[in-house]
Design brief:
7-stranded mixed β-sheet, 20 helices, globular
């Protein structure tokens, strides 16, 4: 039972810092390596470096960790929150509850304090006096401005350095290894020795103040483990960009848009390192187009010419790409489009998370159009699916979309190192001049192999029979213009057959099935992290062992149909309002299976958490 919490004496006469009075919370059992830390600051305050140091310090201690940044989409000075989750069990989804709050934003500090569960800890500027709002929270008031002024003579730098003071306070209270903290900090400022020294002094000031003035009254601790050895920390956009390099991509056409911009920015950085020939000349092209429609048009043009080309965008850009997406589908042009999804509709909330583009991407453009989608569920798959997308787009001769989201694309994730690709690039059915001489010609849109995919030539192929018209209007097998009903019917049937061929080529789902459960869960993308944790909660708390399938691509492979057929009830977990994945499944599975499908939806802009899934499933099951 909580009593008065720790408080700092109001005064600090003559510039000296007074030791706080202490009225203790009831003793609690230690909670080790199972906590979430939320740092509440303002946009533009320079807290990113401090938060990164905290995250990587815990990582260096061998504790599984993840970080999520919740920031405003418009101007500096608005609230931002960064959450670090440390989990001995390896859980990396957002945790619904906050255990340790660092309240550095006066505008939100009261609300942040009131949102904490009982027994949490709060670190805050002493003048805020947040202890008045809660009697069940361990409070640690800190004179941040005075501590910062003591270590940083330059007033203009104090706003940035102050953030490192809270790193020291958190480190002392959670008992972080200061060797790991210093190593993380010096790596953060690797090329700036003076900055590193100044920031390290601020960390030490915060640490020493907490050590001398606070008696710990919260249960949260971080202890060294050995669960991060050999692992890396990377965000999904950087991983996808690296995958594009390994896939042989040489062309990027884009229009900047949150949260996809860093994907192309990372590609540019990698290309400058790895796409330079022996003479120092670039062997890649990056063009910022006037809008997203122009960007995808240039990508398809480059793909038609034989280059491996891509663009990256988000929901509003996808909307603009509809016309060229239809051309790519109907004229059968390769190109890769990365959609890092965010909250919509319209401009929506550009810096919030959602899985809301599934239906628009699957059928992007008018008429009977269907697109292949790859849906990575980790940074490792961002790397791998980027490579797979370029092979698939040329094998199938159609645009291929890779659907990530803001949570995966922009946030830091722990991962196993990426595997160096061993398979050669698959360029699909491309005929050379020698092939044409041997065959005596070809028909561009003829289904020779029964898979719906025709053969193509590349511009510049030195053979009189290599040329053909690429048409977005009606055409027959020989690429000749036609409006004959039978030609159109046959062409559309062949395109449908090609889409069926894609079922056997796209990444297959991951399935965890005991053969005993009547309940199945289906999730995809970043919902996977929370779904796996929820399965553990269901088993531990309710003795419910639910089977699980993670969709990794559309069109769905046979395993998805079999999974639905083998369960009485199947819950489809997704981060949008309108159950978009459920809608795609209803269109794909047998009619008699549709009644089995149910929804668990999460669409408030925050990444989905395990507890929300568990609570909703239990409610629907009537447990």
């Amino acid at each position: 039972m909580a009593t008065e919490d720790v408080a700092l004496a109001a005064g600090a006469e003559g510039g000296t810092l007074a030791k706080p009075d202490t009225q203790q919370l009831a003793p609690q059992k230690s909670i080790i390596n199972d906590l979430s830390i939320q740092i509440a600051t303002v946009n533009g305050s320079g807290s990113q470096s401090a938060n990164s140091v905290l995250l990587k310090s815990i990582f260096r201690m061998g504790v599984p960790v993840s970080g999520k940044n919740l920031f405003p989409s418009n101007i500096a000075g608005l609230p931002t929150w960064y959450t670090i989750r440390a989990s001995k069990d390896g859980y990396v989804a957002r945790k619904k509850e906050i255990d340790v709050l660092v309240a550095m934003n006066p505008e939100t500090s009261k609300e942040d304090m009131l949102s904490l569960p009982a027994g949490a800890a709060a670190i805050y500027e002493e003048s805020a006096d947040l202890k008045q709002f809660r009697q069940d929270i361990a409070c640690y008031p800190v004179p941040f401005d005075k501590l910062t002024a003591a270590v940083c003579p330059e007033a203009k730098l104090r706003k940035l350095v102050k953030n490192m003071v809270y790193v020291g306070v958190v480190a002392q209270l959670l008992e972080l290894d200061m060797t790991a903290v210093e190593a993380a900090l010096r790596k953060q400022f690797a090329k700036k020795t003076k900055a590193a020294d100044l920031n390290w002094a601020a960390v030490q000031a915060g640490y020493e103040y907490a050590k001398e003035n606070f008696t710990k009254h919260d249960p949260f601790l971080v202890k060294a483990m050995n669960e991060t050895a050999g692992k890396i920390i990377i965000d999904g956009n950087a991983a996808a960009a690296l995958g594009c390099i390994f896939a042989g991509c040489t062309v990027a056409m884009w229009y900047p848009i949150t949260p996809s911009s860093s994907l192309v920015e990372n590609f540019i950085d990698y290309a400058k390192r790895y796409r330079i020939d022996a003479d120092g000349k670039a062997t890649f092209a990056v063009v910022q187009a006037e809008d997203e429609l122009a960007a995808i048009g240039a990508v398809l043009g480059a793909g038609w010419a034989g280059a491996r080309a891509m663009t990256a965008t988000s929901g509003p850009g996808i909307s603009l790409m509809a016309e060229f997406a239809g051309l790519g589908y109907y004229a059968e042009l390769p190109g890769v489009i990365f959609d890092v999804q965010r909250t919509g509709p319209s401009t929506g909330m550009p810096t919030r998370n959602q899985q809301g583009d599934l239906l628009s991407v699957a059928f992007l453009s008018h008429g009977d159009t269907k697109h292949v989608m790859l849906i990575p569920g980790s940074v490792k798959e961002c790397f791998e699916f980027a490579q797979a997308a370029f092979d698939l787009t040329e094998q199938l001769q159609t645009p291929v979309f890779v659907l990530s989201d803001l949570d995966l694309g922009m946030n830091n994730w722990m991962s196993e190192p990426f595997s160096y690709p061993e398979k050669p690039l698959n360029r699909g059915k491309v005929l050379s001049a020698a092939d044409l001489t041997r065959l005596g010609g070809f028909a561009r849109y003829k289904d020779v192999d029964g898979d719906g995919v025709g053969y193509r030539t590349l511009p510049g192929t030195d053979h009189p029979l290599a040329a053909y018209f690429t048409r977005g209007s009606g055409h027959n097998e020989k690429a000749q213009y036609t409006e004959r009903p039978d030609d159109y019917f046959n062409n559309m049937e062949r395109l449908s057959k090609k889409f069926e061929t894609a079922r056997s080529l796209v990444p297959r789902p991951e399935v965890v099935q005991t053969g005993k459960s009547k309940i199945g869960l289906i999730a995809f993308g970043t919902s996977d992290f929370a779904t796996r944790e929820s399965r553990d909660q269901l088993k531990k708390e309710y003795k419910l062992d639910a089977d699980y399938l993670r969709i990794r691509a559309y069109p769905f492979s046979r395993e998805v149909h079999d999974f639905v057929a083998s369960h009485e009830r199947v819950y489809v977990i997704e981060q949008n309002r309108d159950a978009q994945m459920l809608s795609l499944l209803k269109l794909d599975v047998a009619a008699e299976e549709v009644v089995k499908l149910r929804s668990i939806l999460h669409f408030n802009g925050l990444p989905i958490d395990a507890r929300s899934i568990t609570d909703e499933l239990v409610t629907q099951e009537g447990i």
